[in-house]
Every structure is written in C-alpha cells, then in structure tokens.
Hints:
This protein has 18 helices and seven strands. The chain is mainly alpha-helical. β2 (135-140) and β3 form a beta hairpin. α7 (248-257) crosses α10 (311-329) and α10 crosses α11. The radius of gyration is 24 Å and the shape is globular. Mean pLDDT is 86; it is low at 1-49 and 477-481.
Amino acid sequence: QKPEASKAPPAKLEAVKIQTKPEAKQPESKQETKSGVKAEKTEASPANAEGPAEAANGEDKGEASEDEADTDTPVSHEKIAGDESLTAARPWRMPDYANQNEAIGYSPAAFAVPAGLEKNVAFWVDIYTRYSTDQGLIHDSEYMDLIYEVLDFSPVMMRRDIDVYQKERIKTKQVKESKKRVIALLKKLSTTEDPTGLTDQEKKIWDYFAKIDDKKKFKDAQHKSRLRFQLGQRDRAIQGIFFSGRYLEEFEKIFRESGLPIELTRLPFVESSFNVLARSKVGASGLWQIMRYTGRPHMMINQAIDKRNHPMEAARLAARLLRSNFDMLGTWPLAVTGWNHGPSGVLRLTKIHKSRELGDLFPRNARKRLGFASRNFFASFLAILEVERNAPKYFGQVMWSQPLASVDVNLPFAVKYSDVLRWFDGDDNRAQIFNPQITTLARKNRIALPKGALISVPVSKGDQVKAELADPKKFRRVGVR
C-alpha cells in the first residue's frame, strides 16, 4: 500500500504565532477537484516549490541587497508527475551513510548544522513534516522562528462551487490579508510603550522583538522582503520519498563511483520533490533542476533530447558540478550553497566576509550577502536529510516505489516519437515518465529522435522493440535538422 499524504493537524509550535481569522465554513463536498493550477511543470526548490529557490548550478545569481525581491512561494503546487500506478510499492529503506571515510571532504561534521543556521533548519523540518500543501505560514524571513500566522486553506480546497483558478485567487487574497493584519500589528507595537494592555498573542510578539536591539525593528519587519509566505510540504515530502525509490539506488552508485558523499543524492528532494517532469519558469529542468546554460557546455541538450531531464545523465553531471564546487570552496556547506547561488558568487562572499563558515556569509544589514533562497538552501537540504532519515518518526509508515521496469535501447537510426509512443500503447504520459529527456519539439513529431539516442521502453516491449529496430523498413526515414 502506498503512503497516504497526511493532513493531520500540525504538532504544537514552539515558534511565536498569532491566530488567523477563521474561514467561513463552506458546504462539504464528496466531489474531488484538482488542487493544482495550469502552469509550467512545477516550481523547483524551498522559496519556490520544494525549497528556497531555482538552482543556479554553475552561474552566479549575484548577492542580495536589503531590497531583496519578494520570496513568497506559490499558494499551490502542481501534482508531482510520476503516476504511482506505474510501479508497485516496496518497503522504504533507511539511508545508510556509514563507511564514507574515502569520500571527498567527508567527516562526521561534513553535514552538521552550521552555527547560526539552527533555527533555519528547524523551520524547514516543520515545513516538510507539520504542514501540508493546504497550509502555509506567514513568517519573518530573517528570524525564521518568528511565525505570525498559520493559514489553513482546507475549507477553500473542499469547496465544489468554484474552480481551481478561483481557489487560487481566494488563497492569494488570504495571504495578502494575513500580511496586512501582521503589518497592522507591527505598526501598533511600534507605538506601544506599555505592553500591559496587549493581548496574550500580541505580548508574545512584543517579547520577541524586545530581544532585538534596533530602533527600526518594527518598521523593518514590515518590509516585503521580511514578511514572507511559505506553503507546507508534508504531503509532497511523503510523495517524494515514494518516487525517490525509482532512482536513489542508482544515484548512490553514481556518487560512490565519483567519490562523493551519498548524502548529496538527496538534493532532488529540495529541488523537485523527485518530480521527474519538473520544469521551472526560469529554465531549470529535471529532478536536479539543472539550468540550460549549465547543461549546454556538457553536450546535454539538442533539439530532440535534453539530458538534463534524464535522471541518471543529470545525476552524473550533478556529481561533476558538485565536485567542482567543492574543489573551489573547500567545504560541503559552501559547495551545496554554490549549487544554488553559483560557486564563484559564494567564493566572492567568503572573501568579502573573510570567512568560510556558511553562517558568516549573510550578516544582517550587510549590503553584500546571500539572499533568502541561497542562505536557506543548505538549511533546507539538512532538513530533508533529517526528515528522510527519520521518515517513520515524522510520517508513520512510508514506502518506496519499485524502479521503473524498463529496458534501454540505443536507436540505430532516426525515429519519430509517434513510433516510440506505439511501444507505450499510445500512453503519452507513461512514455514521458520513462523518457523525460525527449523534448516537446520531438514529442510533437516536428523533429526525429536522432540515431544513437538512448530510449527507455517497458521490459514487456523490449524484445518487440529490438526486433522492429533490426528492420529499418518498418520505420519511415526522416532527416534530423
């Protein structure tokens, strides 16, 4: 039995929060509705879909200023592509990170929580385990344990009288209204001299700010870069663990052979939740969310095939890039941050701040420092290591997917996608999940899959495919542009 995404009420928060206004109760419905919205295939990492932001891979993002852009996550996520019905479930396997003394840069402290990031890691653990995608937080992006409101979108999602776009607008409006309430509270506290007249919840916020020695603390906390919305990830974490079973064992082999710590194979949890069809609107793609400009120099992309989306090809490139990051930066906290921010940018910050400790690279009020996404990328990665390693503690029983039952075939000549589709009995979605590297242009039969392209087909069709490919006359020859 596959794990069911839990929407149980979150455990009691230790963070400071104030109560939200209750949503008006809507008529219950047994009719199921889609919870996603039409958009490009999922957003990627914590500040977007799964974690803090789109991957920079090999190119710098540039440092953030105090006018850092709005970092809210969307109020909805698209469903993780993968089709659970394609593979049976199997028992989940606890990760084994032992016997890695020969791995590059490995030590017991290599993936310990850096000083200054303890609250960031705790925040992301809560996001992955306590809050579902029908819940979200309004929080302070600087003081990650300062949570103002917890929003519950469940009443909206249960409504049957409105479509997904209307639900999206209602949830977006709720986020905006919540921020307005918080801003009003902060303005009130900024003029309060005697806290005895405050409510209990207001007093908690007052007490929190009492520890901050800054005359502009209430005003600064109202800035759009500080007041942030983050959607929960609990159900996506459970789904991600299931789909990771298709790929993680092979990823671990690749990283071991490359001499790298196998903890790094868990980066796709942060980048894509193991959504094999993940595409971001800024150009990151695949399980590893590799940028186009990163893939091109490695001969990963042509008009018909984009190997950034091939799980194993992308994992091999990720291993090379991460090794390069480590060679430049010298520690895994910096190298992993370089995956998101760009290694040269991280190196530049280590020189500006005269430190190679990650926690020293984003001092408050510094003009040159890591932005929200980059300073939380390693924290969210450490959080998912904790969550996956202790998945039964957080989720109860969890399961892995069986690997896709596939056979790899090298095309001896150019083949149209329509012929590939035949091997999947016309099921385009199934063909995509087996072959996410085939581009939209090829899938629309505007260009052929070139000779030498590696295609995965169901094991049950393996002999048939090999027999057909042995007879070129069965295929209509097409030129490859």
